[in-house]
Amino acid sequence: MEDAMQFAPSENPALATYSPEVRQQLFRFVLQLADTSLILGHRLSEWCGHGPILEQDLAMANIALDLLGETRSLYQYAAELEGQGRTEDDLAYLRSATEYRNPLLVEQPNGDFADTVVRQFLFDNFHYHFLKQLVNNADERLAAIAEKSLKEATYHLKWSSEWVIRLGDGTEESHRRVEKSIAELWRFSGELTIPTALEKELQTIGLIPEYADIQASMTAHAERVMEEASLVIPQQVFMLTGGKDGRHTEHLGYILTELQYMQRTYPGMTW
Amino acid sequence: METLEMTQEEQFQARIDADVRIEPKDWMPDAYRKTLIRQISQHAHSELVGMLPEGNWITRAPSLKRKSILLSKVQDEAGHGLYLYSAAETLGTTRDQMLADLHSGKAKYSSIFNYPTLSWADMGCVGWLVDGAAILNQVPLCRTSYGPYARAMVRVCKEESFHQRQGFEIMQTLCEGAPEQKAMAQEALNRWWWPTLMMFGPKDEDSPNTAQSMNWRIKRFTNDELRQKFVDMMVPQAEFLGLTVPDTQVKWNEARQAYDFGEVNWDEFWAVVKGNGMCNRDRLGARVKAHEEGAWVREAAMAHAAKRAARQVVAA
């Protein structure tokens, strides 16, 4: 059992050099990353004990745990950036659905195993390539968190890519199911790399990677995997966005109802 | 030489008596093999089904740290299930067969998992009491006569002792917290105490397999001996926490140097064993559903592996 990485607040010298405005922007962005990992980890953890085979139950729990570790490091950093004395748990448990900034993709229901695999593949393809850039980030703390998460995300992308291939190439049924999941979920993939106003501002000052730079690698990887899986990348898909600006699908409310149940029922207690 | 005059069975028993481990390729009596398959698969199934009552609280864990520990613990249980299924497979059965027996109701799993987890304090009680009882049952199995089982148990026990500590720590945090938290802890203890005493199985006089299992050194202590050890270990821990064990007959017996305690409700025990516990249908139903709904995934994985192998042959 390993706690999420703990950093001493003094470890990030950049913190003092940020203007209050940049610090606030970075806070909001780190929160967005933390929300993203938290919600996807939550969804994956719903599989625990219900997977199609014990080995994959373990694999999904493992990915969920990695994401949860990343979540904690990010919320801890966000709390420091905000400097209002909030904790990781305050940030995770005591905000409303419209304050959450995760992209829509990660809050989509688990569906069948193909839906989960495709959702994971679309996210991992972004996450891995994004972290690869983030490790060189000017913000040392984000770079350090990214470095740890990149090792994990490398495995996640391998896992989800292999499963897309297995399901696409496997049987008629698995092919039909994964095709359906792709048709259903692809429309949520665009949001990952369509920058919000906040992301554009942070990209302008060079504090987060340009999504245009990672788009090419993401496309190349997706093409390779889809081809090997005998699957076709959907074209001309209308991309749904909004999650990163707090406009969510109806699913998020129910996730938060469960996630926040204890903290809302028993406010202010230590667990 | 004397051994030449011994039957296979006598030689086998002589090895057991000399504490020499039995390995998969060694000759063993059919009944020994059957008993072990039954016991190891039951143990593996318990790990698998045991994921459900705790998995039930992962999405509702009260803090990110607790969530992470709980998820990791349930993941460990899946891992234990894997080693144990592998250990059982060395005796000539398959995981598919064992799962089919679980799903048909032929094979059992620990009845404790047929009780519902209703509050966060149940995560404390499951770790502290249920894993505590499991450890007492399992530590002796690290010296059980069948090698693969004993080796799997060494690994399992290491992780179980961590699980037990985290359960105790949940209870301790609740007991040191707000009055509602302490009440939650006491309420959970009230529900889990008796069912955990039942985990050691029927009374010795009602346990027909015990003598043979002890003789084969599959089992090293009787059910009643382990139950007594458990009570002796847990009553002081409950006192330390400031909680009351829900048994008015618990009393230190100076002469026996052990606690006296009340009689388990054996009617309830047998009812749950026979399928009439609160969650028997839900637990088994969840496992059957996962297995059935996962069939197409397993088929796809097999089909892909076969196609891939065929493509490699062509390429070569």
From TrEMBL, chain A:
<dbReference type="InterPro" id="IPR011882">
    <property type="entry name" value="PaaC"/>
</dbReference>
<protein>
    <submittedName>
        <fullName>Phenylacetate-CoA oxygenase subunit PaaC</fullName>
    </submittedName>
</protein>
<dbReference type="Pfam" id="PF05138">
    <property type="entry name" value="PaaA_PaaC"/>
</dbReference>
<dbReference type="InterPro" id="IPR007814">
    <property type="entry name" value="PaaA_PaaC"/>
</dbReference>
<dbReference type="InterPro" id="IPR052703">
    <property type="entry name" value="Aromatic_CoA_ox/epox"/>
</dbReference>
<dbReference type="InterPro" id="IPR009078">
    <property type="entry name" value="Ferritin-like_SF"/>
</dbReference>
<dbReference type="InterPro" id="IPR012347">
    <property type="entry name" value="Ferritin-like"/>
</dbReference>
From TrEMBL, chain B:
<dbReference type="InterPro" id="IPR009078">
    <property type="entry name" value="Ferritin-like_SF"/>
</dbReference>
<dbReference type="GO" id="GO:0097266">
    <property type="term" value="F:phenylacetyl-CoA 1,2-epoxidase activity"/>
</dbReference>
<dbReference type="InterPro" id="IPR012347">
    <property type="entry name" value="Ferritin-like"/>
</dbReference>
<dbReference type="InterPro" id="IPR007814">
    <property type="entry name" value="PaaA_PaaC"/>
</dbReference>
<dbReference type="InterPro" id="IPR011881">
    <property type="entry name" value="PaaA"/>
</dbReference>
<keyword id="KW-0560">Oxidoreductase</keyword>
<protein>
    <submittedName>
        <fullName>1,2-phenylacetyl-CoA epoxidase subunit A</fullName>
        <ecNumber>1.14.13.149</ecNumber>
    </submittedName>
</protein>
<dbReference type="InterPro" id="IPR052703">
    <property type="entry name" value="Aromatic_CoA_ox/epox"/>
</dbReference>
<dbReference type="Pfam" id="PF05138">
    <property type="entry name" value="PaaA_PaaC"/>
</dbReference>
